[in-house]
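Priority: low. Protein: ABC transporter related. Input follows.
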Amino acid sequence: QTASPLLAVRDVSVVFGGIVALNGISFDMKKGQILGLIGPNGAGKTTLFNCLSRLYQPSKGDILLEGDSILTRPPHRIAEVGIGRTFQNVALFPNLTVLDNVRVGTHSRTNSDIVSDSLRLPWIRNGEKAMNKRVHAILDYLELGSVAHTVVSGLPFGTQKRVELARALAAEPKILLLDEPAGGLNHEEVYILGDLIRKIRDDRGITVLLVEHHMGLVMSIADHVVALNFGRKLAEGTPTQVQNDPDVIKAYLGSK
Ligand code: ATP
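Result:
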């Protein structure tokens, strides 16, 4: 018997003008899985990532979260259904503290009316207190407690990336979409990041989709890998299966 997938990508195509960036992509993500999305430059990874985070509308196909289409949701409502994301280039508020940046994450899961009401209504203010407690717990969890009151722009890049993760976690996502999290990190930082992603999955049961060029990271933490090339799905399977797939090897050698 097969459990129904948490997320189902069904025959998704994206056409920009005349360019077919994605051509009939289908795959499933199971709950608690770490899925690595790989492919040479221009393969369509970012385009697919942007469909999942609702920045792009597919020309064809559907994306289902727990059986319901997410395509009717505007991008700013996507956190509410449980999809969180980080950005390739850190996208934090540089002049705000770590604490305030992560608090922004909690609001993306809340109706904006409730947030503004929280300034007036005492019983909702209690909700804010609970939120603050949650934010501090997340900061401690990601070992950011000691920099909670530090302005983000003064922190090392690796730490800023962790703040972004904290902000995404604050919205209590079911699925975390990570856009090239290893970009700009040194070898040791990538290793720490890999452990952290696995820990988040293990401790919180969060499902992770990882778009990544750093093959070492993908191969060491992904349970399942989907390889794209020229907008099509080239292969999928365990990291070992995909790494040894002749079409994948050819695509990577051919692109370099
Ligand atoms: P990289 O690893 O270099 O980031 P990628 O796998 O993320 O590549 P995409 O950025 O998704 O690939 O690009 C897939 C194809 O779609 C490419 O041919 C690209 O030129 C094209 N493309 C992507 N975004 C747009 C856009 N906004 N308008 C037109 N064409 C686009």
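The two ends are 41 Å apart (CA to CA). Residues 110-124 have pLDDT under 50 and may be disordered.
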